[in-house]
């Protein structure tokens, strides 16, 4: 591999001049800089990042830890962090805790998962990362990071028990309120809801958002029209049947899998979703675009969560103070056939 000295000899300039160009600094004529870069490329020059770290005390590398890379939200958030790194000249190292693959049902608050996390953090620090962005599977409180108080952390799609660790999430409650208002606009009062597990922060916030929308529309909340389920399609199938039997004309499902379960039951029982029953889900998963009918839903700002978390981290590393320790981003409502939008020309 070529060295800076070899590039300087071939270009006929000093080592200091080559170093300036390769490190993106000013003070070198444009023609000379272009020639140096062309020579470096022809010699397959690769910068010595370890040497750069020893000189500056910074590796220009972030660590990204995901609780499970196979969960639907994680790839887009990672991509957002990658964009922030690319725009600001940083590299990143990805670590995957594989919580769902290891334990079957996501993260647990016990010593085993804590040890796994701390082992991964130690591995990141051994690679001299400047800071770590931690991505949750869902909105929960992660274990304390105070053992590494000298290392900057940012949480994405989750929060930390440490109040000084910034977090970036989306506004579940407001999004649920907006989704329910799509149903309320149909001038229906029999609006039902199928929740996720009630030990989930998502389920609680979406319940509050649902109630907010009913209150604003002057519709009394009927607890008989709220059924608690799980995050799976089977919950939608079974509980959707019960809600329809109780007289509801519209259903807010806490995720798209639940909603597609409702669609399954309706399709098997002669109920036209989007006409006889209005339905909206949450998450904007791929299945929402291929279900029959297509599913209205809430699109999460996953890329923006990653981009925001990455920029907060990079701002921190540059010495810029963040204005908030908790950032809540807005969601978008996407109306499709399940709420009666059968024509793309409708507004």
| Count of structural domains | 3
Order of helices and strands: HHHHEHEHHEEEEEHEHEHEHEHEHEE
Please identify, by name, the CATH architecture of the largest domain.
Answer: 3-Layer(aba) Sandwich
- Count the DSSP helices: 13
User: How far apart lie the N and C ends?
Assistant: 60 Å
How many strand units?
14
Percent strand:
15-25%
Percent helix, as a range, is 40-55%
- Uncertain segments of ≥5 residues (pLDDT<50)? 343-347
Tell me, briefly, the overall form: elongated
CATH topology of the largest domain: Rossmann fold
Radius of gyration: 26 Å
Secondary structure: elements and pairs:
Elements: H1 4-11, H2 15-22, H3 30-42, H4 49-56, E1 61-66, H5 74-87, E2 91-96, H6 99-103, H7 111-126, E3 131-135, E4 141-142, E5 153-156, E6 159-160, E7 167-170, H8 172-184, E8 191-195, H9 201-216, E9 226-228, H10 233-245, E10 250-253, H11 256-268, E11 278-280, H12 287-290, E12 297-299, H13 302-317, E13 326-329, E14 332-334
Parallel strand pairs: 1-2, 1-3, 3-5, 4-6, 5-7, 7-13, 8-9, 8-10, 10-11
Antiparallel strand pairs: 12-14
Helix pairs in contact: 1-2, 1-3, 5-13, 8-9, 10-11
Give a structural overview.
With 347 residues, the protein is of the alpha/beta class. It has helices at 4-11, 15-22, 30-42, 49-56, 74-87, 99-103, 111-126, 172-184, 201-216, 233-245, 256-268, 287-290, 302-317, and strands at 61-66, 91-96, 131-135, 141-142, 153-156, 159-160, 167-170, 191-195, 226-228, 250-253, 278-280, 297-299, 326-329, 332-334. It folds into three domains: 4-47, lambda repressor-like DNA-binding domains (434 Repressor (Amino-terminal Domain), Orthogonal Bundle); 59-165, Response regulator (Rossmann fold), CATH 3.40.50.2300; 172-300 and 334-339, 3-Layer(aba) Sandwich (Rossmann fold). The protein is 42% helix and 16% strand. It has a six-stranded parallel β-sheet, with helices on both faces. A four-stranded parallel β-sheet has the order 9-8-10-11, sandwiched between helices. Strands 4-6 form a two-stranded parallel sheet. The radius of gyration is 26 Å and the shape is elongated. The chain starts with a helix and ends in a 13-residue tail after the last strand. The model is unreliable at 343-347 (pLDDT under 50).
């Amino acid at each position: 591999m070529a060295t800076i000295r070899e590039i300087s000899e071939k270009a006929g300039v000093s080592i200091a001049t080559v170093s300036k160009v390769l490190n993106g600094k000013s003070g070198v004529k444009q023609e000379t800089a272009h020639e140096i870069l062309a020579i470096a490329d022809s010699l397959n020059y690769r910068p010595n990042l370890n040497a750069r770290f020893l000189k500056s005390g910074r590796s220009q590398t972030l660590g990204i830890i995901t609780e499970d890379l196979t969960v639907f939200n994680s790839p887009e958030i990672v991509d957002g962090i990658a964009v922030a790194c690319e725009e600001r000249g940083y590299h990143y190292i990805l670590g995957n805790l594989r919580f769902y693959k290891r334990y079957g049902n996501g993260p647990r608050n016990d010593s085993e998962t804590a040890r796994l996390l701390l082992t991964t953090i130690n591995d990141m620090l051994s690679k001299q990362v400047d800071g770590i962005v931690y991505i949750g599977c869902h909105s929960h409180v992660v274990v304390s990071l105070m053992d590494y108080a000298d290392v900057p952390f940012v949480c994405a799609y989750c929060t930390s028990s440490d109040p000084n660790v910034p977090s970036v999430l989306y506004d579940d409650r407001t999004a649920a309120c907006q989704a329910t208002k799509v149903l309320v606009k149909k001038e229906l009062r029999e609006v039902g809801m199928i929740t996720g597990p009630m030990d989930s922060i998502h389920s609680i916030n979406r319940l509050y958002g649902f109630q907010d929308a009913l209150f604003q529309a002057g519709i009394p909340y009927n607890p008989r029209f709220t059924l608690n389920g799980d995050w799976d399609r089977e919950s939608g199938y079974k509980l959707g049947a019960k809600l329809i039997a109780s007289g509801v004309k519209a259903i807010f499902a806490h995720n798209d899998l639940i909603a597609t379960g409702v669609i399954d039951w309706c399709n098997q029982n002669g109920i036209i979703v989007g006409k006889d029953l209005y339905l909206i889900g949450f998450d904007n998963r791929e299945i929402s675009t291929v279900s029959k009918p297509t599913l209205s839903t809430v699109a999460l700002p996953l890329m923006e969560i990653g981009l925001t978390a990455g920029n907060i981290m990079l701002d921190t590393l540059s010495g810029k103070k963040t204005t908030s320790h908790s950032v809540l981003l807005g969601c978008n409502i996407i109306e499709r056939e399940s709420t009666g939008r059968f024509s793309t020309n409708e507004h």
